[in-house]
Every structure is written in C-alpha cells, then in structure tokens.
Amino acid sequence: VKLFGEMEFWFALIKIVAICALIITGAGLVAWGFTSPSGHTASLSNLWNDGGMFPMGLVGFFAGFQIAVFAFVGIELVGTTAAETADPERNLPKAINSIPVRIIIFYVLALIAIMAVTPWRQVVPDKSPFVQLFVLAGIPAAASLINFVVLTSATSSANSGIFSTSRMLFGLAEEGHAPRGLSKLSRAAVPARGLLFSCLCLLGGTLLIYLIPNLVTAFTLVTTLATVLFIFVWSLILVAYMVYRRRYPERHAASIFKMPGGVVMCWACLIFFAAVLVLLSLQADTRQALVASPAWFVLLGAGYWLRRKMAR
C-alpha cells in the first residue's frame, strides 16, 4: 500500500504540473492577445463565438457523455481505500469533498484554456490540443513532453486499476465468490495471485491493437464498454446504499458523513445512468460496444454459477 501510494503521488504530480502549466500558458496567451498563424486571436469569446455554446446542437453535446463518463472511471476507488486508510472518518470526507474542486481545475479550466486559444473548428481530432497549445506558445519540445505525461497518466491508471482489482479479487475469494486460491497472500501481505491475474487481463487487452487496426475505433470500443460496466458498478453501489439504509437505519443515523440528498439523489443518479445508456445507443461507434456488453455479464454469471456449483 505504501509503495502504491508513493507511485501514485509522483504520477499524479506529473499530471498536475502539466495541466497547471497548460492553464497558466493559456491564460497568458489570452491576456497577451496572442494571434495564431491562422489569424485567430486568443480570447474567452472563442468559447461562445462561431455557433454559440452548442454549435453542433444538443446531439453533439450528448455525444460527449460517453468519454466524459469514462473520464470518471475509478472514482469509486476513494471508497475502497477505507479499510486501508489510517483515519477514514477524517481522510475520506476530505478526499471526497475535494473532488468537485479538482474537476473544476483539471477538467473545466483546462478545456477553457484550450478552446480560448484554439477555436473549436481549429482543433484537429488526430492531434493533441495540449501539444498544439504549447507549440503556439513557442515550446517546440511540447510533443515529447506531452507524450511523457500521457505515458505516466496511462501508467497511473494501470497502477490504480491493478491495485484495486487485486484487492477486489482477494475480498471476493475471502467471501467465497471467487476461487479460493486468490485469497492467498505473499510474505509481504500482498494478494499476489490477484495481482498477477489482473496483470494478465491487462496484457490481454493489448491484443485489440492487432485485432482492430484502427486505434480510434479500438479506443472507442474499450472506453464505451468500460463506461457501461462502470455504470453497472456505480448503480450497484447506489442500490447497496439504499438497502443499507433500510436494513441498518441506526448505523446510518450514527454516520458523520452521509450522502447528500439520500435516497432521492440515488434515484436521480440511477435515472441519469439509464439516460447515458440510451445516449450510447444513438451513435454507431458506441452502439457496437453497448450491444457487446451483455456478453461480459453472461460470462460473469456463468463463472459465478460454476463457482457456486463447485462449492457445494
């Protein structure tokens, strides 16, 4: 756990420094009134000029929900750290309450900086807008720097994913819902078998590069499938919370950190998730992954049924 936390600290620091540098650079170009070689002047008015806030209509806005939801994959990891946090009653509320602030800084401000400098019609789909902004600022090594940041971000994502899945597999094995061998710990008290299984699954994902030559298509399929599966996970968390409230009202009443809105907000979130699934069916590229997602649930259900049958 200590090593995981140390690695994540440095991975996160690299991302934070890069995004903050992007925001500061964008703000500087806007304040300076920078004019690009194409003749466009950096200005906040680029956010609403040329078609308004929704130049492609609401359909274009809703089409972005798939990648937006995918961007929050793993946010539930904050809750799974409760068992390994020194003071969860103090640290977890602090971490959770800071999430909206981080979204505003690292998502909203970064997008404002990019679109204020580069009008949306000038953004090239197959080129990084981060790289474009730094190149306009006169930093020729931007491409290499951003590629380094992207690689560390991907490594960070894999690092947290492997950490969480290995612990999840260990917990499932402890409760008899996964093969008992996954509950074995190494000498360092690490669920090594779950860790190895997670790495093998991650390695298997690289086969998509060879099975689907178009990387954009492969990326869309993977992110959409991940979006569907995590909507299912988040929905289960919400349902579990509502069941917990009903079965243990005294424990919930004693909690010092409750969900705002309670059951009403749970239903609002579930309705939103259902709406996102409907939106995924409207686009041809995301519809393919949505149609394929039941195969995973069938495979998971068959594995669970087989496990229960062998346990009898």
Task: Supply database-style keywords.
312 residues; 2 domains; mainly alpha
Q: In words, what does this structure look like?
A:
This protein has two domains: 1-159, no CATH class; 213-312. The protein is built from 14 helices and no strands. The chain has helices spanning 2-32, 57-63, 65-70, 77-80, 88-97, 99-117, 129-136, 142-174, 192-204, 208-211, 215-247, 249-254, 262-280, 284-311. The longest helix is centred in the middle third of the chain and has 33 residues, at 142-174. The relative contact order is 0.09.
Helix content: over 70%
In terms of quaternary structure, the protein is: single chain
Estimated share of beta-strand residues? under 5%
Largest β-sheet summary:
none
What is the rounded distance between the termini? 35 Å
- Alpha-beta classification: mainly alpha
Order of helices and strands: HHHHHHHHHHHHHH
Low-pLDDT runs of 5+ residues are: none
The whole-angstrom Rg is 22 Å
| Integer count of domains | 2
Please report the total strand number as a whole number. Answer: 0
Average pLDDT reading: 84
- Rough outline: globular
